[in-house]
Amino acid sequence: MAIATLVVSLVMSSLTFWAVNSIQQDAQINDTRFGRDLGLLLASNVTPLIAEDKLTEVAQFSGRFFHSTSSVRYIIYANEEGHIFFGIPFSQDEVKNSLTIQRKLELPEDYNPEVNNPVVRQHLTPDGKVTDVFVPLSLKNQYLGVLAIGINPNPTVVASSNLTRDVTIAVFISIWAMVILGGVFNALTITQPIKELLLGVKNIATGNFKQRIDLPLGGELGELILSFNDMAERLEKFEEQNIEELTAEKAKLETLVSTIADGAILLDSQLKLILVNPTARRMFKWEETHIIGENFLEYLPPEVTEQLQQPLTHISQEEQTKEEKEHHNILPSRGEFIISLNPPNQNTFRVLLTQVLDQNRENIKGIVITVQDITKEVELNEAKSQFISNVSHELRTPLFNIKSFIETLFEYGDDLTEAEKLEFLQTANHETDRLTRLVNDVLDLSRLESSRNYEFTPLDLAQPIEQTLRTYQLNAKDKNIELIQDIQPSLPPIWGHYDLLLQVFTNLVGNALKFTLEKGTVTIKAYAVKANPENPQEYSHVRVEITDTGIGIAPEDQEAIFDRFFRVENRVHTLEGTGLGLSIVKNIIDKHNTRIHLVSEEGVGTTFWFDLQIYNVA
Ligand code: ADP
């Protein structure tokens, strides 16, 4: 801008300068011509007078000439040697003096008295350029001297050139003033808003959507600012909405992660903990420890660290190979490990390591570790294989017995007495019963576990209880155990399934007899529980208790005995059983929408109890 202004102002100035210059040159030419003519005119008039030495007349004539025009500045006469003998406006005395002191006229170098041409030159005075004309005075080829006449500068030319110069300066100054004023105006009305807009756009680009521009401007700039503010507002709202959605999503995910049954751990690529869900904290006993930001490996039990250190380091550093990237193999690396903790907490975990890749699936951002507590699964599997070995064992013994007795009967039947034959057959029958029992248990359980619906009816509990006790009467007598029946008179009917409840009593009383030593007692008790102590007729449910004075169940086994295939004596292999009885009981009680409980003390005895819903006629 400044450069453009400078160029324009300089061009203008030089144009004006050139104009003034040409005017002055014209004036100079005019002055020269005028002076030359004036000089020649004066010379032609005075030459004869000088030739005749009539100096007074020369002076008079020159005086008249000088005074008749304002253009002549001076008139000087010098003789052939160049000595001044007369000059106007110098006084006569001065002339005399000058004559006496013999002042000499300074002639220009190119002045030649031989040539009859006047010489013109100019010199500068405070009033302008004065034209000096030197005219040789010669008459009939005789050189008499020189006439020097000075012509004043043309006053109108001087005035007009002065005016032009002033106008030029004024133009120059006004151009600059206009440019400066324009610049200031520009800065106030355009540059400032544009600067603000630029700043605003930069802020928006960096994500600061709170940016607004507050400038009271009209016109297109005003509209631009309005649109900008509108845009910023929309972006801000959009961002708020986005943040809300993201927060909601995050909350959902966090809730999900915190509630899942598996342990979830998130590590960064440096193996530092970023997120640990409550399940994982429980699994590794981190409830009280501040572990976020710490190195994962340092907080694990040593046996886990030992197993995970290498795969974790490997997975956190493993980059995808070039070929994998080229073939868009975007699956992150994974690893699966089964880790058993050392005693006292003999849990078994399945640990899954998965890489977390960035958006382009190129760099590793972290590792997700999923931990599943598979202790139960492992135990169950163990129990299952134990069961299979038990069942095989249980099946093999009766089958072998049956086969050998039948073979003996078949081959040596003729040699046997009737009594022996009967005994053999009885043994085979007994063994078949054992087989049937085992197979029935397995069948019962699988039937119960399939979601079959059983039809419930109102029942008088005394009936299945009495039937059970009848079944075990002989057995109890054999073992010298007292069987006690304690049923509340006029027990309200319950809502249930006869055959299923009969099986519950059979299994529980059977177990009680099995695990009670001689002279012990097994009691089966049933009574109605009052819902409201003030109204003795109002019952909420019927409670059944089967109590024995047997060997009891160790506290650590009390929960597990309801699991399928679990037998305390699996470890000792003594009494016969399938480990399915209590599982069947639990399943049946579940089908009655209630729960089975147990209270037991080793060496004292065990009580199993459960409640049953009363059948309401209404
Ligand atoms: P089983 O067919 O072997 O009896 P159950 O499921 O009925 O299988 O019982 C599981 C285990 O629970 C038994 O092996 C036994 O160790 C224990 N148990 C069940 N009832 C009693 C009881 N009344 N007293 C002591 N132990 C018991």
Overall description:
- It is a single chain.
- With 618 residues, this protein is an alpha+beta fold.
- Helix content is 50%, strand content 20%.
- The chain is built from 13 helices and 17 strands.
- Strands 2-1-5-4-3 form a 5-stranded antiparallel beta sheet. Strands 7-6-10-9-8 form a 5-stranded antiparallel beta sheet, sandwiched between helices. It has a 5-stranded mixed beta sheet with strand order 12-14-15-17-16.
- Helix 4 (155-205) runs parallel beside helix 5, helix 10 (418-449) crosses helix 13 (581-591) and helix 11 (462-479) packs parallel to helix 12.
- The longest helix has 51 residues, at 155-205.
- The two termini are 103 Å apart.
- The mean pLDDT is 83.
- The structure holds adenosine-5'-diphosphate.
- Residues 507, 511-512, 515, 548, 550-551, 553, 561, 566-569, 577-583, 606 line the site of adenosine-5'-diphosphate.
